[in-house]
Amino acid sequence: MTTAASATLPAQGSGTAFTDPTVTDPGGALLRLLTDRSADLPEVDPGHVAAAALRGRHAGSDFAELRGLAVDAAASMIAEDPQYSKLAARLLALEIVDEANSQGSTSFSASIAVGHTEGLIGDTTAEFVAKHAAALDALIDTAGDDRFEYFGLRTVQSRYLLRHPITRKVIETPQHFLLRVACGLAVGDNEQSVREVAELYGLMSRLEYLTSSPTLFNSGTRHPQMSSCYLLDSPLDNLDSIYNRYAQIARLSKHAGGIGLSYSRIRSRGSLIRGTNGKSNGIVPFLRTLDSSVAAVNQGGRRKGAACVYLETWHADIEEFLELRDNTGEEARRTHNLNLAHWIPDEFMRRVNANEDWSLFSPADVPELVDLWGADFDEAYRKAELAGKAVRTIPAQTLYARMMRTLAQTGNGWMTFKDASNRAANQTALPGRTVHSSNLCTEILEVTDDSETAVCNLGSVNLGAHVALDARADDLINAMDWERLDATVRTAVTFLDRVVDINFYPTTEAGTSNSRWRPVGLGVMGLQDVFFKLRIDFDSADAARLSTLIAERIMLTAYERSADLAEQLGRHEAYGETRAARGELHIDHFPTAAPQWADRWTALRARIAETGLRNSLLLAIAPTATIASIAGVYECIEPQVSNLFKRETLSGEFLQVNPYLVRELKELGVWDQQTRDSLRDANGSVQDLNWLPAEVRSLYRTAWELPQRALIDLAAARMPYLDQSQSLNLFMAAPTIGKLSSMYAYAWKVGLKTTYYLRSRPATRIAQAAPGAARAAAPVPVNTPTLTPEQEAALACSLENPESCEACQ
Amino acid sequence: MSDDREKMLLDPGFELTLRPMRYPSFYDRYRDAIKNTWTVEEVDLHSDVADLAKLSEGERHMIGRLVAFFATGDSIVANNVVLSLYKHINSPEARLYLSRQLFEEAVHVQFYLTLLDTYLPDPEDRNAAFAAVENIPSIHQKAQFCFKYMNAVDHIDSLQSKEDRRAFLLNLICFAACVEGLFFYGAFAYVYWFRSRGLLHGLATGTNWVFRDESMHMDFAFSVVDTVREEEPDLFDDEMAKQVTEMLEEAVEAELQFAQDLCGEGLPGMNTASMREYLQAVADQRLARLGLPIRYGSANPFGFMELQNVQELTNFFERRVSAYQVAVEGSVSFDDEF
Question: Which of chain A's residues have a Cβ under 8 Å away from the Cβ of B219?
Answer without folding.
Answer: 767, 782-785
